[in-house]
Structure to design on (384 residues):
């Protein structure tokens, strides 16, 4: 028998994710890393007290340099501009985005934004008063952007790999888009928070962007990779020619990030470069295979993003409504993410999809998958 649940109100995806945190539930909702630490990562965590002493003693800029070199290096981003003082660390990548948004609105009133994508990006950009023009993911990846679009915006904002689709912008495509942005004087902004999961997103983006001559800003993030209890760093990295008040606004908001967290990031990134990142990619691939196998024989169910390697996976629930499935599994204590809000310009396009998190322990993932599977198979109102 279903328990009686209070009616929910969730205004955005993060509020849907918060519901999953509030209970002792199976949480497959948010994209944060909640899997067990690996043995090597546990060892680093066990050394936190001595890292505290080290962080208190050493000059902060030195620690920041080591963290940046290690993290950007692990991800193939060798042409990062730390030496030029342009890798601005933030408490989170959303804060980096907020600083970018506030900077952009001083010189322009509109942004072209990839569609779909995680809804806090459009909400942050709109929050400072920017008008948004959707750029379909297929369009951004397959064709030149139309002149009419580039003439009316101050920035093109692309998430790569995209959340939730996992789609990665190729080097050739990035080069062409950057050339177009250079031609029109438009800032090219990249959110690369999920790049650690996909080797295809690890070519040296900074070399490509610099060669194009365009004005660019990249947002990097440690937040999705390691189960570090929300201890993380987001980086805001502008080009030399960006001509936006980014450093000023960054300094209005923070003096710096924690040298303890930066030291921890350095150690985790060194372990990542030493095989930890490849291990994480294998873990996510295993979890994706486990999930796909569990639904292989459920009628009307399909996985949307065949080639995705990011730590989230979209499930199409056929003719069912995602919110109906969401409610049915919620009554059994399983939380997933309904997808309509990713489609920030046209929510109905996401209304038959759910997003499931893969950065969990396999036992949680399997238990959640079984609840979802029986809900899809058993509930007559949910028949595809
Ligand atoms: C995901 C939420 C916010 C974000 C969750 C996310 N952050 N709202 N500032 O980290 O995919 O679940 O990106």
């Amino acid at each position: 028998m279903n328990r009686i649940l209070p009616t929910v109100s969730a205004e955005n995806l993060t509020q849907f994710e918060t519901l999953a945190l509030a209970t002792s539930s199976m949480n497959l909702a948010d994209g944060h890393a909640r899997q067990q630490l690996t043995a090597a990562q546990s060892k680093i965590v066990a050394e936190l007290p001595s890292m505290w002493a080290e962080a208190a003693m050493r000059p902060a800029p030195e620690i920041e340099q080591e963290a940046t070199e290690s993290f950007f290096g692990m991800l193939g981003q060798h042409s990062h501009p730390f030496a030029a003082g342009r890798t601005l660390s933030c408490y989170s990548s959303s804060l980096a985005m907020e600083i970018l948004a506030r900077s952009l609105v001083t010189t322009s009133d509109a942004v072209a934004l990839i569609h779909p994508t995680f809804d806090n990006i459009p909400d942050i950009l709109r929050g400072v008063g920017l008008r948004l023009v959707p750029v379909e993911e297929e369009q951004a990846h397959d064709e030149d952007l139309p002149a009419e679009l580039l003439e009316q915006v101050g920035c093109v904002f692309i998430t790569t790999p995209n959340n939730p689709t996992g789609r990665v912008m190729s080097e050739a495509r990035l080069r062409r888009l950057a050339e177009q942005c250079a031609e029109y004087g438009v800032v090219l902004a990249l959110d690369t928070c999920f790049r650690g999961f996909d080797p295809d997103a690890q070519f040296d983006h900074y070399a490509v962007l610099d060669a194009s001559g365009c004005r660019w800003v990249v947002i990097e993030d440690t937040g999705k990779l390691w189960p570090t209890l929300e201890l993380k760093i987001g980086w805001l990295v502008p080009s030399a020619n960006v001509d936006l008040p980014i450093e000023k606004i960054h300094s209005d908001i923070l003096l710096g990030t924690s040298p303890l967290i930066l030291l921890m990031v350095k150690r985790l990134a060194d372990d990542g470069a030493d095989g930890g990142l490849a291990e994480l990619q294998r873990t996510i691939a295993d979890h994706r295979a486990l999930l796909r196998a569990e639904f292989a024989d459920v009628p009307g169910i399909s996985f949307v993003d065949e080639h995705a390697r990011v730590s989230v996976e979209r499930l199409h629930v056929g003719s069912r409504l995602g919110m109906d499935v969401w409610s049915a599994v919620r009554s059994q204590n399983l939380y997933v993410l309904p997808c309509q809000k990713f489609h920030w310009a046209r929510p109905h396009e996401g209304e038959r999809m759910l997003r499931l998190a893969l950065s969990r322990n396999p036992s949680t993932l399997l238990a959640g998958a079984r609840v979802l599977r029986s809900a899809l198979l058993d509930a007559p109102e949910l028949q595809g």
The longest strand covers residues 110-115. The domain at 13-38+274-376 is CATH 3.90.1150.10 (Aspartate Aminotransferase, domain 1). The chain has a mean pLDDT of 96.
